[in-house]
Amino acid sequence: MIFIYAALGGFVGGFLRWLIAQLIPGKRATLMANTVACFVAGVVVCLELSHLYTVLLIAGFCGALSTWSTLAKEIGQLINDKKWQMALGYLSVTLILGFSAVFIGMQL
Q1: What pLDDT is stored for residue 67 in this prediction?
Q2: Which residues contact 5 (CB under 8 A, 6 or more apart)?
Q3: In this predicted structure, what is the pLDDT of residue 71?
Q4: Number of domains the chain contains
Q5: Which domain holds residue 75?
Q6: In the prediction, which pLDDT does 94 show?
Q7: Structure confidence by residue, pLDDT tens digits, 31-45
Q8: How far is CA 43 from CA 32, 52, 86, 104, 105, in A?
Q9: Which of 64, 43, 54 has the alpha carbon at shortest distance from 2?
Q10: Alpha-carbon distance 92 to 83, whole Å?
Q11: What residues form the annotated binding site for Na(+)?
Q12: CB contact at 8 A, 67 and 34
């Protein structure tokens, strides 16, 4: 049963990730998807949900929505292009927004 919940959350999160990529170009889509996933995870962590719903929302939905592999690829490309400041800035903004989103989500 847990697999079904994770798969269902993953389907919805993956679809939302695809939709964001269609509406917002490039790195901004990755930044938005990761930030939203962090916010949702922050909210879910503070809710007293059953294990199945936590799997649905965090492992499934947030796992598919967040795109840490895309982030790594984008930062790696910036490093390969010797755009050190842009790589560091992009990573820093991602981390700051991610941690802030989790914190804000936990406050709700």
Answers
A1: 86
A2: 52, 53, 55, 56, 60
A3: 95
A4: 1
A5: 2-107
A6: 97
A7: 999 999 999 999 999
A8: 17, 16, 30, 8, 4
A9: 54
A10: 14
A11: 63, 66
A12: yes
